[in-house]
Amino acid sequence: MTTICAVVPSFNSELHIEQTIDSLLNQTKPLHKIVIVDDGSQDGTLEIIDGMIRENKNIELIQLKQNLGPSYARNIGVEHADSDWILFMDSDDIAHPLLIEELQAHLERLNRTGDQPEYFLAHPNYRHIDEHGNVIDNLNYGRPYRKEEALGFLLLRNTIATSGTLVNRELFRKVGGFNTEYRYAEDWDLWLRMSEHSGVAHINKHLVDIRRHSRNLSASMSTMHEYEKKVLLSYSLEKIKEAIFRRTQLSPKQNMCDYVSILFRLDKWEEGYTIIQELKDNDCNYEQLLFLEGIYFLKTESAIEAEKRFAEILNINQCEGASLNNLGAVKLIRGKVEEGRNLLLRALELYPNYLDARYNLQSPPPYTWKSLKFTWRKLRSKLISYDQQ
Fold first, then answer.
1. Residue 386 domain-assigned?
2. What's the domain count of the chain?
3. Which end is more exposed in the chain, N or C (fewer Cβ atoms within 10 Å of the end residue's Cβ)?
4. DSSP 145
5. How many Å apart are CA 183 and CA 227, to the nearest integer?
6. Residue 378 belongs to a domain
7. Burial of 49 (C-beta count, 10 Å sphere; 0-12/13-18/19+)
8. How far apart are CA 345 and CA 308, in angstroms?
9. pLDDT of 214 higher than 60
């Protein structure tokens, strides 16, 4: 590894852009250049950047005449970066001083072990901070993935934040960069395409602070899920299944369960349900099968059958958040209001940021399948707080 440039898209970022740039300037391993692509800011962002450029020649500003979105801005930044590697950082996030040094050293260690380099993407853990810089939570979502298994794991869930991720510029360009038609899930789409050619290196340290506030693009959960489906639809079912079954550290039955979960996300409910019935006759993850059956019965509005599945899950695991919400909602629909509300309160006690449970608890009667929110995937151990849109 020789040179690294940071690429930072900015749009009306006057509140935090200086702190972001300072965190990149203060790396223990200096960056070759910091490329800032301003996406048509109308506030004081440009004045702040101009002032910092006068004091540091390693900062380069590119001004777009109109707002074209962060994917376009990042792609432009990569084209202007004359380096071998790119560090992505959003304009309100903060890099720990050791971020570059740790990522570079980790990649070099991994890529020394084989005949050919295998890792062209690396990322750390991160913390969430609020608008004032107060730490909200520490997140440990990331995991390392070998090249042959990376796509199969990432298809199930995105575990990589954009800020603090280091990528090989040549591979980034080879796979086409960020898809400018995606305003949500554009990072996940890129990681998936890169994972077809690279393992995913991960450092189990909090080296980035990601700011959460009402202006975050990722705030709209419903729209984000629509774009996630678009990303999945860009792959054939054959390719998805093949990638999932390359995860040799998991059993074939576990891989099949995960394949069913993707079929459900693509609205292939009957196809997935048929596979579930076949798996039930085998020694498979019983709790996961119950959950898949449960969400199938939610989709088909079979209240009694759904209630049985989620209740059985809670007999196995009393803290399973998605089942608490889903069973609570079903009980509201069936007129068991007190039982339902108690389940939702329990879900919020365990997961204070759980939007579906909070929404259902605040919903007035009459309770219907359309008026309540169900959770279609098991929860992460920690939930991000998003605005509901």
1. no
2. 2
3. C
4. B
5. 8
6. no
7. buried
8. 20
9. no
